[in-house]
Amino acid sequence: MREIVFDTETTGLDPRAGHRLVEIGCVELVHGLPSGENFHTYLNPERDMPDEAFQIHGLSGEFLGDKPLFADVAGQFLTFVGDAQLVIHNAQFDMGFINAELDRLGLPPLKNEVVDTVTLARRKFPGQRVSLDALCERMGIDNTHRTKHGALLDAELLADVYIELTGGRQRGLDLMGAAATIQQAAVLASSAGSNIRPPRPYAPSDAELAAHAEFLKKLKDPIWLKPDAA
Question: Is 149 an active-site residue?
Answer without folding.
Answer: yes
